[in-house]
Write a structure and sequence with these properties.
By secondary structure, the protein is an all-alpha fold. Helices cover 63% and strands 2% of the residues.
């Protein structure tokens, strides 16, 4: 009798299996372990908003690692969706609080919230009994591909709202110019996009892993 191999399951029927062979999933898993370790290291070393921002990305990288490690666990997918949804709500509240405190909307926190919503979406559509509509799948996928390019190219660091304010001009005393230069002002937001190269590479890799997973789910 000819061995037909394992019968495809519900998850295989809703994903492009050719895009997710075992070696591809393993490669993404290794990359995501490295990403998680980078964020853990920086979360330990940094205070304030950057610490929480790195913790959020630890959650995302671990969630993506779990997806690539085992796509067929219904309970795991529910857990990813629920934890990601709770994190997205917390991020939305954080944005509101920080907007009142800093008098501006930090686009980096806003983008992180969208990233987390993509995690919620993936967790839901990977459930065996749920198939996601193609349009939002591709919308999230294209957005995350853009995130990949933005982090890889250092484009976030060029956003004016995420850079330290320019140093003031020379002070004037009694109508005359002062010889002392004004001290550089602090950043207008508590979280800037000026990050180390390892963080940029890790963020680009994680966004790419999310975009790739969505491409597999959409085709």
């Amino acid at each position: 009798m000819t061995d037909m191999g394992p019968m495809p399951g519900p998850m295989d029927s809703m994903t492009n299996v050719s895009l997710l062979p075992a070696w591809v999933r393993a490669a993404w898993a290794v990359a995501l372990v490295a990403v998680a370790l980078v964020h853990v290291w920086h979360a330990r070393c940094m205070p304030g908003q950057p610490r929480w921002w790195h913790i959020v990305h630890v959650l995302m990288s671990v969630g993506m690692l779990a997806m690539y490690a085992d796509m067929h666990q219904r309970g795991l997918n529910w857990l990813i969706a629920v934890v990601s949804a709770a994190a997205a709500v917390a991020l939305a509240v954080t944005i509101g609080v920080l907007r009142g405190r800093e008098r501006s909307l930090n686009p980096l926190w806003f983008a992180t919230t969208i990233d987390m919503l993509a995690m919620v979406y993936m967790g839901v559509i990977m459930l065996a009994s749920v198939r996601g509509p193609a349009t939002p799948t591709w919308v999230f996928g294209v957005y995350l591909a853009g995130q990949t390019l933005a982090w890889a190219g250092g484009l976030w660091d060029r956003v004016p709202a995420l850079r330290p304010a320019a140093a003031g001009a020379a002070g004037r005393v009694g109508g005359e110019s002062s010889n002392a230069l004004a001290a550089p002002t602090r950043p207008t937001v508590g979280l800037t996009a000026h990050v180390n190269l390892d963080v940029r590479i890790g963020l680009a890799a994680m966004a790419a892993s999310m975009a790739y997973m969505l491409a597999a789910l959409a085709t």
